[in-house]
Structure formats: C-alpha cells, structure tokens
Design a protein that fits this description.
Elements: E1 5-11, H1 18-26, E2 31-39, H2 45-50, E3 57-62, H3 68-78, E4 85-88, H4 101-108, E5 114-119, H5 130-143, E6 155-158, H6 159-162, H7 174-184, E7 189-194, H8 205-228
Parallel strand pairs: 1-2, 1-4, 2-3, 5-7
Antiparallel strand pairs: 4-6, 5-6
Helix pairs in contact: 5-7, 5-8, 7-8
C-alpha cells in the first residue's frame, strides 16, 4: 500500500535551525509534504523557509504567536487530504531530523498506530527529572502503560488516531494528554530510540521556569483526565 506522509513543523524564532531541520527530511521519498507553520516569529524564520526551493515544502505564516498547539492545529487544517500518516517535528532538531524516518517505518510496516521518539540522555545537566517522572507516572496511573518518552513532541500518527481529537490541546501538557487519550482509545504506541538533538533546557532560571510551567500544565491535564474516568 502506498502512503501519503505529511510532516508538520511548528516554528517560532528558529531562523538558525529551521533550514537544516527541513534539509534532514526533504530527501526521503517516503515523505510527501512538509508544512512549516510560522508561529508569529519576530526573526527571519519565514524568509529562511521561503528560500527553500522544493515543492514538498509549504509555509503557513501566522502573524501572531499562538503557541505550539495552535500551530499544530493550523498545520492539520492545511495538509493534503491524501495524508494518511502525519508527523509532528520540532523546528530546532537541525539535521538530526533525518532520524525521523525511524518513526515512519514502524507505522508503514504495521507494527503500531503511533510512534514517539525516544531521545538519548541529554549531553548537559537539565532539571532534576521531576517533570519526566510526573509524565511517566501519570500515563501509567491513567492507562496502565509504562512509557518513558511521553513528553517527546517528535511523533508520527496514523490519520485515524488524530481524528479522535477535535483539536490539539494548548499548553505544555499536550503530549501527556494526547498519549493518555490515544491509549484509552485502543491505539498502539511504540517508542523508537533516535539520535536526535535539539536545544536543551539548562539549569538556569529560564530552564527551571520552563520546567515549572510543564509541571503545572501536566498536573492540570492529569486532573482533567481523572475526572473523565
């Protein structure tokens, strides 16, 4: 069976890495289109994407920053109707986005409905692991499944999986909330080890504030999922 594979890349102020992120996947015959959603960037992200001369690449330019969830929703509204496998990739992966093919193949081969990228350990010290533990423990509590990468935004889906969502939720708890709903609806998930890299969050004030926001958003979405049981 021939598949039509669309990749959505939400981008906010990623002028330095967006071109190499696209370059990493553009040469794969399996990938049919790459939809970049500029999420109100104040740098040259849109100009960099426009300079890429390849008919696989389309740019959707949102003038106002609305957040990753809304950018993904915009992407989903603009991909080809032929798409039956859909991927989400972050804009800061750089050339390591080429590892995304490892997420595509298990779905094509019928091994699972969803793949999630499992990153190798970070190269620099980040937080204390409390957000990752919360995500892992919350998914287990609500589904009985143990996943170590439920925070990862690098994912590929069969189209019918995404159809269970009216829209992609907003906030840093989006990946955890989606993971819970996917499992509860009987779809299978496979974590795939990849050699991807991205801008890692360090142990500075901005890094800790980011993780605090993640923690609060995950707690909120877990509370909502508990009420739905």
């Amino acid at each position: 069976m021939n598949h039509y594979i669309s990749v959505i890349i939400p981008a906010f102020n990623e002028e330095e890495r967006i071109a190499s992120t696209i370059e990493g996947i553009i040469g794969y015959d399996e990938i049919d289109e790459i939809v970049v959603v500029n999420d109100g960037s104040s740098d040259n992200t849109t100009e960099v994407v426009r300079e890429i001369n390849n008919n696989k690449v389309r740019l959707i330019d949102q003038k106002i920053n609305k957040g990753k969830g809304e950018a993904l929703n915009t992407g989903l509204k603009n991909i080809s109707e032929s798409a039956d496998i859909i991927g989400f990739l972050d804009a800061d992966l750089g050339i390591s986005s080429s590892e995304a093919i490892k997420l595509v193949n298990p779905i094509i081969d019928g091994e699972c409905d969803v793949t999630i990228a499992k990153f190798k350990p970070a190269t620099k010290k980040g937080g204390l692991g409390f957000v990752k533990r919360l995500a892992r423990d919350s998914v287990y509590e609500l589904t009985g499944e143990t996943l170590t990468s439920s925070l990862s935004g690098q994912r590929f889906f069969k189209k019918e999986v995404l159809e269970i969502f009216d829209s992609i939720p907003y906030g840093y708890g989006v990946e955890v909330g989606m993971t819970v709903d996917i499992i509860k609806n009987g779809f299978s998930i496979k974590e795939v080890l990849v050699d991807m890299t991205h801008n890692e969050t360090g142990r500075d004030i901005s890094g800790f504030l980011h993780r605090l926001k993640q923690y609060i958003h995950i707690k909120k979405i877990v509370k909502e999922k508990r009420r739905q049981r």
